[in-house]
């Protein structure tokens, strides 16, 4: 079974390829489709717009939360195409990690000149 570090490395490589090919300034959905395609091409199990129920008081509530991408059942990727990442974006990903009981997530903002400035790795320490 691959380690989450290997998976995140592969995700970042694919994201860089997408960003260098189509550049910044497009809608989040365009980046999602391209990244989904690249990750599948690399042999990853990728789920797009995966529903994420909220467990409250031992009751499963379908509140409409969806993970942008879930890769190999180990890493959540939340995609953005915004001027800058905010604390709220980090909080959103951290909440998704907790809700899904997943340890590692990537927050990727494609609306930057160099993608390395738009990537944030988040670890859920439970």
Strand segment tally? 7
The low-confidence parts are: none
* Rg, Å, rounded: 14 Å
Helix content: 25-40%
Q: What's the N-to-C terminus distance?
A: 22 Å
Q: In DSSP terms, counting alpha (H) and pi (I) runs of 4 or more, how many helices?
A: 3
Number of domains: 1
Give the CATH level 1 class: Alpha Beta
Overall mean pLDDT stands at 95
**Strand arrangement, largest sheet?**
1-4-5-6-7
Account of the 3D structure:
The chain is built from 3 helices and 7 strands. By secondary structure, it is α+β, with helices and mostly antiparallel strands. The protein has one domain (4-123): Trna Endonuclease, Chain: A, domain 1 (3-Layer(aba) Sandwich), CATH 3.40.1350. Strands 1-4-5-6-7 form a 5-stranded mixed β-sheet, sandwiched between helices. A two-stranded antiparallel ribbon has the order 2-3. Helix 1 crosses helix 2. The longest helix is centred in the first third of the chain and has 19 residues, at 4-22. The protein starts with a helix and ends with a strand. The model has no long low-confidence stretch (mean pLDDT 95).
């Amino acid at each position: 079974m691959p380690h989450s570090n290997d998976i995140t490395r592969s995700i970042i490589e694919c994201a860089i390829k997408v960003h260098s090919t189509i550049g910044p300034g497009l809608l989040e959905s365009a980046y999602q489709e391209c990244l989904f395609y690249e990750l599948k091409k690399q042999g990853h199990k990728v789920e797009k717009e995966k529903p994420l129920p909220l467990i409250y008081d031992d009751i499963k509530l379908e509140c409409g939360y969806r993970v942008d991408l879930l890769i190999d059942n180990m890493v959540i990727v939340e995609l953005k195409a915004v001027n800058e990442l905010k604390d709220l974006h980090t909080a959103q990903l951290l909440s998704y990690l907790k809700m899904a009981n997943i340890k590692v997530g990537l927050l990727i903002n494609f609306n930057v000149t160099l993608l390395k400035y738009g990537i944030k790795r988040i670890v859920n320490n439970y």
